[in-house]
Amino acid sequence: MLKLAHRTPMVPEDARALVDLLSGHFGIAAPQVRFRVRSYGKAGPLGRYIVLPRERMRPASGAIGYLRVGIVVHEFAHILARLLHGRVEHGLQFVQVLDAVLRVSQPLWEETR
Ligand SMILES: [Zn+2]
């Protein structure tokens, strides 16, 4: 599911909508979503915002630096993991949170494909 998410392009409006839906589902304050032209994606250190690449991934572009479902879900998982566990790195607890976020989000982003 994670690989599929990283192969699924997104546009910024849908990324913002997905973050809002996920925030509602998990009962947290929605982080602000900021876009940069090229970005690896980033979760703000205090959990209040995430940074995402603005440009939608295209078939020839490769994933890195472009907007796709996988990066939205990943950065949102950082926000949620930080709230639940107080940690922001990529350990087991993060992976478990990421799995939960992926499961919840799949029906939502599959509609945008
Ligand atoms: Zn990360």
The helix count comes to: 4
Task: Identify the bound ligands.
Answer: zinc ion
Q: What's the average pLDDT?
A: 91
* Adjacency order of strands in the biggest sheet: 1-3-2
Work out the radius of gyration.
13 Å
- What is the chain-wise order of helices and strands? HHEEEHH
Question: Helicity level, as a percent range?
Answer: 40-55%
Q: Structural class of the secondary structure composition?
A: mainly alpha
Profile the largest sheet: 3 strands, mixed
How many strand segments? 3
Shape: globular
β content, as a range? 5-15%
Description:
The chain is mainly alpha-helical and 113 residues long. It is 50% helix and 11% strand. The protein contains 4 helices and 3 strands; from the N terminus they run ααβββαα. It has helices spanning 2-6, 12-26, 69-85, 92-110; strands spanning 32-36, 42-43, 49-53. The protein has a 3-stranded mixed β-sheet, with helices on one face. Strand 2 and strand 3 form a beta hairpin. Helix 2 (12-26) packs parallel to helix 3, helix 2 (12-26) crosses helix 4 and helix 3 (69-85) crosses helix 4 (92-110). The mean pLDDT is 91. The structure holds zinc ion.
List the defining traits of the structure above.
113 residues; mainly alpha; 3-stranded mixed beta sheet; 3 strands; 11% strand; binds zinc ion
List the helices and strands and how they pair.
Elements: H1 2-6, H2 12-26, E1 32-36, E2 42-43, E3 49-53, H3 69-85, H4 92-110
Parallel strand pairs: 1-3
Antiparallel strand pairs: 2-3
Bound molecules: zinc ion.
Zinc ion (ZN) binds at residues 74, 78, 90.
